[in-house]
Amino acid sequence: MNFPEHLRPKMARAQHMDAQDPPLIALVGRESGPRVSQTHHHAAGQLLGLFNGLLSIRTNLGAWVVPTTRAVWVPPHCPHAAFSHGPFNGWAVYVRPDKCAGLPEQPRAIEVSGLLREAVVRAAQWDLGEPNRVQTNVMNVILDEIAGSPADAFRLPMPGDARLRRIAAAIVDEPANARTLDAWAAWANTAPRTVSRRFVEETGLTFTAWRQRARLLRGLELLASGQAVGTVALDLGYDNASAFIALFRRTFNTTPGRYFAAGAPEVADVGEDLADGIAARYPSFE
Fold this sequence. Notes:
- By secondary structure, the chain is of the alpha+beta class.
- Helices cover 41% and strands 19% of the residues.
- The longest helix is centred in the last third of the chain and has 18 residues, at 207-224.
- The protein is elongated and about 65 Å long.
């Protein structure tokens, strides 16, 4: 991400954290175009999130398409790659290796609460150095949110069975394909009941839910590239935009237009969620 000149030393330090650094380093930045970060790893744990736009994260355990409502946790020394789908405003939290004890040991997506987002915005304002009491409390909020957030399954898990993988790959390549489950089973030379049962066993989703997820994730990519909602809905096989918008709203609690129109908050704009959350968990904050 692009950072002002005075924040570049902070970014450089975040990539090589050790015992001399604060427990975590938070950064906020933006990109005016697509960004690709090839596979790499670092000693610090990392939490990646967005204020607007769309980001994809790949690890050895899977891939996530990350909307503004989620973030991806990458533990220390875990190889990962990231790329954006057009312009975005994002944030990152780097956690000192020794402070990652008790945090998830595997990469995962988590839901981003208002408290977490606002704590990150607050922490991004700080210079490097020994944290004071208030800063330590805010850092603890961030660490508690990472540790306590349940894993979010917002990704497209691929089945292991070769026949099901063939079906899944074909749907990903052509999400508008309207074949029924029975037709897909015949195409893959297997029984419909096998497809239905194994999809649930191997992905945790029914065939219908998996196909909806594939369409939605592809829709996010198309919307992020600037295509109109109606065009995207038709490209995904929907008869009209209303059905796609309804699925989008159920998943993200907003419409596609509002989702991609949302902007990043000002760094100083920290809401009441942060103060209330810290006061509840750390009474000495007041």
